[in-house]
Amino acid sequence: MATVTVCEDVVGLAVALVEAHEVRIGPADQMLQQICLDAAAQVAAADSQGGDARRTAVRNLLRHGGYKPSGRSKPAQEYLLRTVREEGRLPAISNTVDLINLISLRSGLPISLVSLDRVGDEILLRYGQAGESYVFNRTGQELDVKGLLCLCTTGPQGSQPVGSPVKDSMLAKVDDTDRRVLACIFAPRDQIAPDELLDWARQLAEGFTRFCGAAQTAVTMKPESW
């Protein structure tokens, strides 16, 4: 299983980590597609869990390290909400990504999804440093992660950011060759109860089993309670 260490200087963060092994990544089945459609319609009419208060709290969480979560750099769940309000549906990408987007839309929380097959089992969650960035799409666009909460690889060559509550790197993004994935649900500790965050994580784990064929899942929380 992967080990995720949260740096001591990270402020106000609660995370739920969902690891899944032996996933089979491909198009979402009809049931997951329908669940996503229903959720999009519901959220478009009634908002995500926590509404504006939670969106403000998530942005404030990202500001603690000095990051400015606005414009094209806003948290990922805000893009999902805008999409369902404008188009009436979530984008269809793959079973794993569609599932992540479903939980993120409903919960009002950003979620990072990375391939453990490529980033390894030792992960550090820290603020991005000056000069750090990564490519996040096929056209080569880069995200400057200075001050942003980041999932980072560790190893002999040092730590490298690969995922965040805004966008994940191309290096870490999952594809149909991956079998081990890790989802990180980022939450403002002062705006969500531990039981609610744990429930979203368990729904995600159940979805990995039901819709992605995962043979094994594990859920952990950091901190365990607050």
Descriptive keywords:
226 residues, alpha+beta, Phenylalanyl-tRNA Synthetase, Chain B, domain 3, 4-stranded mixed beta sheet, 4-stranded antiparallel beta sheet, 6 helices
How would you characterize this protein structure?
With 226 residues, the chain is an alpha+beta fold. It has one domain (3-222): Phenylalanyl-trna Synthetase, Chain B, domain 3 (Phenylalanyl-tRNA Synthetase, Chain B, domain 3). It is built from six helices and ten strands; from the N terminus they run E-E-H-H-H-H-E-H-E-E-E-E-E-E-H-E. It has helices spanning 30-46, 51-63, 76-87, 95-107, 116-119, 194-212; strands at residues 3-6, 13-21, 111-115, 122-127, 133-135, 142-144, 149-153, 160-163, 180-188, 216-222. The strands form three sheets. It has a four-stranded mixed sheet, with no helix packed on it. The protein has a four-stranded antiparallel sheet with strand order 3-9-2-10. The two termini are 24 Å apart. The mean pLDDT is 96.
Detail the topology: elements first, then pairings.
Layout: E1 3-6, E2 13-21, H1 30-46, H2 51-63, H3 76-87, H4 95-107, E3 111-115, H5 116-119, E4 122-127, E5 133-135, E6 142-144, E7 149-153, E8 160-163, E9 180-188, H6 194-212, E10 216-222
End-to-end span in angstroms? 24 Å
By CATH, the architecture is named 3-Layer(bba) Sandwich
Question: Low-confidence segments, ≥5 residues, pLDDT <50?
Answer: none
**Gyration radius from CA atoms, angstroms:** 16 Å
- Total helices: the number is 6
Regarding CATH, which class? Alpha Beta
Q: Write the CATH homologous superfamily.
A: Phenylalanyl-trna Synthetase, Chain B, domain 3
Mean pLDDT reading:
96
